[in-house]
Every structure is written in C-alpha cells, then in structure tokens.
Design a protein that fits this description.
The radius of gyration is 27 Å and the shape is elongated. Strands 1-10-11-12-15-9-8-4 form an eight-stranded mixed β-sheet. A three-stranded mixed β-sheet has the order 7-13-14, with no helix packed on it. The chain has helices at residues 4-9, 11-21, 27-57, 63-98, 137-143, 149-156, 165-182, 198-203, 229-234, 291-308, 355-360, 383-393, and strands spanning 119-124, 147-148, 162-163, 188-190, 195-196, 223-224, 240-242, 248-257, 276-286, 313-317, 329-337, 342-351, 363-366, 369-372, 374-382, 401-402, 416-417. The chain is α+β, with helices and mostly antiparallel strands and 425 residues long. Pathway: Aminoacyl-tRNA biosynthesis; selenocysteinyl-tRNA(Sec) biosynthesis; L-seryl-tRNA(Sec) from L-serine and tRNA(Sec): step 1/1. It holds the Pfam family tRNA-synt_2b.
C-alpha cells in the first residue's frame, strides 16, 4: 500500500511508476475518488459536530425551542443518512483501486516490459562439463527411483510428485543445511502456519493481484500459502516494535501450495513446477535507514547457500515489468541446469520497503515517533528445485549422482546416489 500523501501531493510520481510497470490503472480516477472521499468526510464531520452541539443545547431550552432543535436534528440526521452510504461506496471503490497500485521501484531497477528485459547482475562459478549427454532430472529420477510423478498423478492429478529413497533424505538434508547456515547469522528458526486469513494474503501483497494462484478452504475462509513469507511477515501485524530490537531476522520452513493457474503448458515434466513444494524462507524487518544494507546481506546469504552447493549461477536484476506488486527491487538467482541446457530460477530475493508494513500496520518507535518498518524476504532453499539441480549438475556417466561435499556429513558420509538398498515398486 502506498502512502496516500504521495497520491495527494505528487500523483505524477505514481503515474510514472504505473507506466514503468506496464499496468493499466487510471491514476486520475483514484485522485478524484480520494478528493471526493475527503470532501465527504469534511461534510459528514461537520454535520456530526452540528448534531452534537444541538444535542447539548436541548436540555436548557423552552418547549418551543426544544421542538425546533429536535426538528433541526432530524434534518441533520437525514443528511447524514444520505451522505454516509455515499462515503462507504466511495471508499470501497477507492480501496479497490488503491490495492492495485504497485510499490515504487528502486532507482537501480531496470525499466522493462518482461523477463527479456532483466539484466545480469553477475555470474558465479563455471558450467559443469560432461563427456556424455547429460540427462534431465526427470530421466535421472526415474532411472534411480527417486521421483514418481506417475503415481502422484493418479493420486493427486498433474504437477505432483513422490520423493523416494535418497531424494526423500535429501529433502531434510537440504533443510538442515540451510538452517545450520542461517541460525548463526541471527535468523530465528520458525515453522509457521500454512493456512492464513485473507488479511495476511492481502497485507503481504499477494491479494488481490494473484488471488487466482492460491488455494482456499471451503468452510473456514482460510488460504494455503505459496510461501512462508506470508505468515512470517504477518507475525508482527498490528504491532509497534522498538527501534533497538531491529533488525528482526526470521527463517521459516513450510510446505507451499500454488495453483500455477497461468503456467499450464510449461514445465509439464518432472517436479520443477508443481502445486506443492517445501521451502526454507528468510525474512527481515528493518528500520528504513539501514534496510538496503540488510537487503544486500539477504542477497549475500542467498548466494552463500548456493555457493556451498557448488552450483554455477547468475544473479538477475529484475526489470519493472517482471517484479511483483509489493517489490521495490528483486533479484532472481538462476542456476545452470545441464540436462535442460538452460538457466532456471532457483531462489529469489525481494525488498518491499514499507509496502507490506502499511497494509499490515507494522510500525516501530523511533525517538518518540512512530514509523513503518521496511520488510524484505528471500528464498533460502527451494527444496524440490535444489534437489533437481543437484541431480542434473552432479550426475555421472554410469547413471549415479555425486552428493555435494557440504551435504555428505548429513548423510553419514555417503558420497554417491544410490546408497540405499531398494526394491523396485
């Protein structure tokens, strides 16, 4: 949610941002509705004040004067009855349009229409070389009996999978690896709820823009989250924090759910793009003056996890047309997938300034003043995608897969997949 003061004092800035994002939003209509809302509020407050004044005068009046004043009160009440529903309707229209306005992008964000305009920030590592034709994760998963999408399809439909054997063990290994790196950096580990109220989805900026992407329960009016960012951000909603307690750093593990409604026809094989996946997320509440330093720490932490796994990757500075509504800036880290011969997004890192904190009313006390905090988030480890990146990058000619050295201590020193006895099912 943007600061209304900016709408009232500098609507041209909002129009410029809407243009950068390629959005079709009539800012003039929003300005007009806000002006009408304020005029109605002045009118209504004036009528209420007049009614209160008349009400206080009545007891000391003569019967005749009392009748006239009562008649005046009736006229005032009638006007209020007319004005109040108009105000409600105006506010509803205004709030609907305000909810569609994006955050202000940072000056370092490239202006562009879509992913083709994203800019490479930097690369790390070298592409792995093979003396054989590398397989896709789907082929490796079937060959080593690590992933079963066929039975998952029978049970749950498309875009689901069973992780089996070493893949199931690597799920927990990756989670523990990420947490062991994050906790010494001051990130408080959490397992948050994955069912949240609409207020949390709206407050974090996922609703109404992406409402069709998420599952909802029929009876309880709750929503399944697509990222732990939602419950981690909403953890402090409605609170006033203390400046000396900032920054607050959290890391949350959760199962995530996304409908992927707009992606049918993409990534239909394997488990790269699925409806259910597990993820370790990191989240920071910061005071504005140091939030961009915290954001770079977040990016460095995201990269440290990927470097430890030995992946070759590139960090992309996402353009204005390819970042989310709440984002002021976003980095995507794309890992090289040899089996697909392309870079694929593995993790992302976003700075949302005070967009989410305004919606969720998360503030802090700064020398007697109350200000909105800044929020930022990053994927620490998207478990499924990281798993398949390991399968593709560490595959061997004989069909086995090496285990990244940093993960071997979590698996009793095992160096190669397979290492478990198995019977084909």
């Amino acid at each position: 949610m943007i600061d209304l003061k900016i709408l009232q004092e500098n609507p041209e800035r909002i129009k410029e941002e809407v243009g950068k994002r390629g959005l079709s939003i009539d800012v003039n209509e929003i300005v007009s509705l806000d002006s009408r809302r304020r005029s109605l509020l002045v009118e209504i407050e004036g009528l209420r004040a007049e009614r209160n004044k008349v009400s206080q005068e009545i007891p000391g009046l003569s019967p005749e004067e009392r009748r006239r004043k009562i008649e005046d009160m009736r006229e005032i009440s009638a006007k209020l009855k007319d004005f109040e529903p108009i105000l409600r309707e105006t506010e509803e229209k205004l709030n609907l349009l305000l909810a569609q306005l994006p955050n202000f992008s940072h000056s370092s964000v490239p202006v562009g229409k879509d992913s083709s305009d994203n800019v490479i920030h930097h690369l790390w590592g070298k592409k792995p070389e093979f003396d054989f034709e590398p397989r896709t994760h789907e082929e490796i998963g079937e060959l080593l009996d690590l992933v079963d999408t066929e039975r998952a399809s029978r049970v749950s439909g498309s875009r689901f999978g069973y992780l089996k054997n070493e893949a199931a063990l690597l799920e927990f290994t990756l989670v523990r690896y990420a947490l062991d790196l994050l906790i010494p950096k001051g990130f408080v580990p959490m397992v948050p709820p994955v069912l949240v109220k609409e207020e949390a989805m709206f407050g974090t900026g996922f609703f109404p823009a992406e409402e069709t992407e998420y599952y909802a329960t029929r009876l309880d009016d709750l929503h399944l989250v697509g990222t732990a960012e939602v419950p981690l951000c909403a953890y402090h909603m409605g609170e006033i924090l203390e400046k000396e307690d900032l920054p607050l750093r959290y890391t949350g593990f959760s199962t995530c759910f996304r409908r992927e409604a707009g992606t049918y026809g993409k990534d239909l094989g394997g488990i790269f793009r699925v409806h259910q996946f597990d993820k370790v997320e990191i989240f920071i509440f910061s005071e504005p003056d140091s939030s961009w330093e915290e954001y770079e720490l977040l990016r460095e932490t995201m990269e440290e996890i990927m470097k430890g796994l030995g992946f070759h990757y590139r960090v992309m500075n996402m353009c204005t047309g390819d970042i989310g509504l709440p984002n002021a800036k976003k980095y995507d880290l794309e890992v090289w997938f040899p089996g697909q011969a392309m870079y694929r997004e593995l993790v992302s890192c976003s700075h949302d300034t005070d967009f989410q904190s305004r919606r969720l009313n998360i503030r802090y006390r700064d020398n007697g003043k109350i200000r909105f905090v800044h929020t930022m988030n990053s994927t620490a480890c998207a478990v499924g995608r990281t798993l398949i990146a390991i399968l593709e990058n560490y595959q061997q000619a004989d069909g086995t897969v090496l285990i990244p050295e940093i993960l071997q201590p979590y698996l009793d020193g095992e160096k190669t997949i397979p290492f478990l006895p198995r019977k084909r099912s």
